[in-house]
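Thread: "does anyone have the structure for this chain?"

Original post by V.I.:
We have the sequence but no experimental structure in hand. Need at least a predicted one for the grant figures.
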Amino acid sequence: MKSKHFTLKNFFFFLFISSYISGFFLRENIAGGAETDFLNFTWPLIISFKENFHFTLKNYGSFGEGSLPLFHIINAYLNPLSFNQFFFQGSITLISILNVIIFSQIIEKKFQLKKKDALLYSCIFLILPFFRSSAFWGITENFGWLFLLISIKYYNILEQKKSKHKQIDIFLTCLFSSLALYIRPYLVFFPVFFILKTFIYREYSLLKSSVIFYLILSIPGIYLIYIWGGIFKIGESEINLLKDYHNPKFIVKNLIIFSSLFFFYSLPFEFLKKNYLNKKVIFVFSCVFIFLLFINYFEIFNYLNLIKIGGGIFLKINKFLFGENLIFFLAISALGILVIYNYSLISKKNNIILISLIIFCFPKYILQEYFEPLILIILFGLIDLGKVDLKKLKKKATILIFCTYFTVYYFGSFVYRYFVYPIS
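Reply from O.Q.:
Generated one for you, tokens below.
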């Protein structure tokens, strides 16, 4: 049995790494929009920054890019391979592997895993369709995840009270979470979580230092707001990106999609739980599901059938199998709400994290790429898991369940993208 598990682990290592390398050279684009985003937004901005920094920064909004400019500035001036599209994309594909390395360091320390097991869990990133597409086509997401992971690494040192240089670790947590924010605006959830947690837990020394550091690190953001003419108007663009497409008014309609995506990425964790289907779980699920069905009776969820962009994997499966009948999707969303509810019962910290993640419900169109690999990062790196989960994560069979689950997801996404719903 031991050698069988060892062989399977090596098989998954080979599969993840070889498919990642071959995917780049075959110009794989399961996400669909990665190539278009690179050609229309990312690459023109990098070239423009090279040619005229001040003009490009001031008129950033006119380029139509949905992220903030740090990624483009770093690569325009610090990436020696940004002279050519293919070489640049290759460099981002390589740099994206740092996500795997940092993530493995986080979970190795947090769960006291063997190095090889932590690395195999982390290599799951390499099989995630949206992570791969962002890497292969050189767009911004994976830089944001990288800085977020580094900030979580230093945050966990602080939380575990193993910091030998507390002020330095606080500063590094604030620095890298700010860098993540200056690439992907929604990663502001982590500074929000960090400040809220220190305040609610009355860690006033930590709160004072982090507020000071964040205020200093916010100066570039304040400058951007100044030269752009306000937070809701970027440059001279006629499209009001933040006001019309990224607004708290979209939270309510997006929560049900968020819960379905949370369930999808957390499902392997649910396999770890003992006696999961008890009376309490069945009762809570039934109440939530009946409530959603009741709301659906009044056609409140009809907007889900009109969604052409985003919605996540389960909404796509629902449309493919059941058309406009939303019962399957509502059942999945109810399960997602149940999972979120269970995590909220474990600790006050979990509640703070989950509340902070509501920021990801601000977009008019909620895309699965916003949550991949975010939810895995949250579950492995930040959220408190139950004691049973901690013990089972170390078991070889559990690692293989995670690897198998996300491998099936990858191949299913590949078939859907290239054979079921090909995009020309």
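V.I.: this helps a lot. Residues 396-420 form the longest helix (25 residues).
O.Q.: and The radius of gyration is 22 Å.
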